[in-house]
């Protein structure tokens, strides 16, 4: 939309069609009232368009505006005619409404652009810049005003006013912060626990079916698991969701905990990535790698979900599982360490667990 | 009362209202001055306009969306017209987003236009900012407007982040989860900020309504204020212009606001609007119904954020797994903190302080209204390109899973590549850009000194063949000659017995001189050779020692 086809050049006299003296001024002109263009108004830097070209351009402008008119009506017609509801009808409605709207806007845009380029004069007007900084005289006047005002206010002389004003402002500044206190509860130890506890059944995410250890028996299988009764509790799911992986017992290596932690090669790891908390949802059967699709942290399911690649710094915590007397999988306790992304107060929970075991 | 008649007369329809206003608001001089305000013309000056118009379109489409959107995380069972999700539990926010998409005529169009306009908004801001950077248009007196612009970009990123989370579909929830993971990793205050922001544990039931208020009221309000300030400053300081014939530091050459610029601006707004409507009509964006409602237990592979968040995603992806425990009790999750904060901090702090650092190094306190051509400030241009490379690599690596899948490259290889290139890439970019700039400066010097190749080969009486050079055309020569000398501080060490100026003493002063010398090291001066003009062949420079033309 720039007037200059060659941006480094100034359209000097020889480039821009300048009106030749003696040729008739363009009909209609650019002033109101159908007035003729006043020759004397052709100031330096204003190059009036060739009248014949302007006449021709007018037709194209009119055509563009006409297209906008028709497209505008088309929009209203589309709105009435095309109903929405399912994917297909909504797609048709969207395309016709958007198409007519775009056509209307672009028609107007093209018309105005033609108008500017074809009818309005070309401009190379020079305007002077003013120096932005004030003159020394202006500055001394301003300085005087500031000094006078400060003296008249008496803030310098009356120390008590100044000091108590500062004192008064301090608690007022704190009020907004105090007011925000009830935005949420204190974290306390909430991030260290999940809803898992001894005896809570593992159910399949989505269907809510409890899992019989004997039924989940194909090695390489994986299930996304949530705690029974919390299937729609977002806060619980954000920490307690598990992946359940069936391995051949001989594949399982330390530091995976086996005794009282697994059931016939079924291991349960937290599904919440220890990096920033995305669900580590991808599992590669051949390598037994668990992959988080967000930032590609990769964990080895056979070795206690230790990190083998990516930005995560800690293994996915393992949940001790067992079976209840009906043969369904249950948790044997909560996680030993906090799940999900690290936080300041987390500390080296894994080390503390190891020390606790030794003691 | 008889008043002296005003000539020329305006038609009644215009005269009446104008008179009404003028007699109540003293605008006379203001209008006279500003209606003919001159705006210079260059394609790159339109980039900021695209950002402004996208913002207006965002306000229009966004307002439409608020008429139906329900910023609530209350659980509802879907019973709308989109069959595949019937009976599914979801939040009211997601349900109302589906309602806008499928049951409000034009709703999907407005949603898609809103999203496209947001992408264009941030994109045009960034490119506008690059234009301002590479042409040195941020220099005095425009440093404040540069900072306002930086504030606008920062807010726009937060605006995008909060808006992206509102529909509460599975993809938007993944973004929110990452945000939470980053917040909670902050030392000392992380868990508290997370609990206060989310109203408790993640995801809680407050975040959508809080983000909604931030997205539709708080940030747009500040944006609107800053945009206004940005425009007022631009208006008062007048626009910069490219160097060229008749253009100086003391004038501005171009078209007047009324009628030309006004009409062009209007048309450009309509173009922007039209293109966004076209995108909204024919290019699907964020089909939330396909993702399903958010649950923290699920994710889809190939999750990608909006493009402007991609660089943070890439930065998180290439990080090495560092985590420090302090006395077993406290954790510094560096594998989150460093990638989330360091690139962002480097880029934004760098952009914020650059005008002031450059002014300190060059000691240049003049007002600048003529833009620099990037080649004429090689250090700045090279720093800029190093920054662009840094950002670009992070952005590219934010999609490394897509790259690995589509080009059959090992995913791990892309990560290792990123870990090396993030350090090497910017250095290479700096060196290459610097050499290109100097090369272009030499060519400019050649054009001014020896003219332009004509393709005419001439044989001299002594048998030598030369190519005839013609003097550069006036517009070209004027454009090249717009180059300004950068002040080089006197060499204090060589000045025997000389006392350095006050600003160049001490450790900081010495560093300043060193930086100044580095900044001005390779300037190629423009010299006109009047002897045998047009007959000289272009090989003259090659014979001279390099130092002779690069140092002065």
From TrEMBL, chain A:
Query: What residues does the Rieske domain cover?
Result: 234-330
Q: Check the record and name the InterPro entries matching this protein.
A: QcrA_N, Rieske_2Fe-2S, Rieske_2Fe-2S_sf, Rieske_Fe-S_prot
Its primary localisation, in coarse terms, equals membrane
Key word Transmembrane present:
yes
Q: How does this protein sit in the membrane?
A: Multi-pass membrane protein
**Which keywords does the record carry?**
2Fe-2S, Cell membrane, Disulfide bond, Electron transport, Iron, Iron-sulfur, Membrane, Metal-binding, Oxidoreductase, Respiratory chain, Transmembrane, Transmembrane helix, Transport
Q: Which SUPFAM superfamilies match?
A: ISP domain
Q: Which residues cross the membrane?
A: 60-81, 101-120, 160-180
UniProt-annotated stretches for the region Disordered: 1-29
Q: Where in the cell is it found?
A: Cell membrane
Gene Ontology molecular function terms on file = 2 iron, 2 sulfur cluster binding; metal ion binding; monooxygenase activity; oxidoreductase activity, acting on paired donors, with incorporation or reduction of molecular oxygen
Q: Name one GO cellular component term.
A: plasma membrane
A Pfam family found in this protein is QcrA_N
Sequence similarity: Belongs to the Rieske iron-sulfur protein family.
The record's listing under PANTHER family reads: CYTOCHROME B-C1 COMPLEX SUBUNIT RIESKE, MITOCHONDRIAL
The role this protein plays is: Iron-sulfur subunit of the cytochrome bc1 complex, an essential component of the respiratory electron transport chain required for ATP synthesis. The bc1 complex catalyzes the oxidation of menaquinol and the reduction of cytochrome c in the respiratory chain. The bc1 complex operates through a Q-cycle mechanism that couples electron transfer to generation of the proton gradient that drives ATP synthesis.
State what protein this is by name.
Answer: Cytochrome bc1 complex Rieske iron-sulfur subunit
Recorded source organism is Bailinhaonella thermotolerans
TrEMBL record, chain B:
Q: Where is the composition biased (Basic and acidic residues)?
A: 526-538
**Has keyword Transmembrane helix?**
yes
- Keywords annotated in UniProt: Cell membrane, Electron transport, Heme, Iron, Membrane, Metal-binding, Respiratory chain, Translocase, Transmembrane, Transmembrane helix, Transport
The record describes its membrane topology as: Multi-pass membrane protein
Q: What is its EC number?
A: 7.1.1.8
Task: Name the InterPro entries on file.
Answer: Cyt_b/b6_N, Cytb/b6-like_sf, Di-haem_cyt_TM
Protein name, as recorded: Cytochrome bc1 complex cytochrome b subunit
